[in-house]
Amino acid sequence: MREDIEKVIVSTEQIDEIVQRLGRQLHQxxxxxxxxxxxxxxxAVIFMTDLIRAYDDxxxxxxxxxxxYGDALESSGEVxxxxxxxxxxxxxxxxxxxxxxDTGRTLAALIKLLQTRGAASIKICSLLSKExxxxxxxxxxYIGVGVPDExxxxxxxxxxxxxxxxxxxxxxxPEIYE
Length: 178
Prior knowledge:
Elements: E1 5-10, H1 12-30, E2 36-41, H2 45-55, E3 60-67, E4 80-83, E5 93-101, H3 105-116, E6 121-129, E7 142-146, E8 152-153, E9 169-172, H4 174-177
Parallel strand pairs: 2-3, 2-5, 5-6, 6-7
Antiparallel strand pairs: 1-9, 3-4, 8-9
Helix pairs in contact: 1-2
């Protein structure tokens, strides 16, 4: 698996530092407010697990599986909800936890959905931001780090549901996906 990686973009140590920083920032804003952290499956699950431990206060966690990619390399533009929330968000402070903000399509659709469901506030926390690939301008409240417009895997990010378990984020060699 590691031999399929061209180069490491975000090391394990850098990820740890980012997660701790974001956890502290979220704690400052939401201390005592019991927010709902919504993990966008499957990519954000590893980040979410580490983030809520760094948050260190009362909170709830929920999961949604929302896709605009499937097994494709590019977003189709069609956003599908595969797994919806198990609890209502009406009147609640919501933090959407994403692994990467790419085109912005999925996130924009998700924000609109949660607004119609009456969330008191909606904030976005993403480990990675790929600005160069953004098609829809979405405001991301908490960003771990900006990344180049390359095919990234590791720490939750995948190619055909593989490589998620790498402890770092790296660029996948083009010969693997071409």
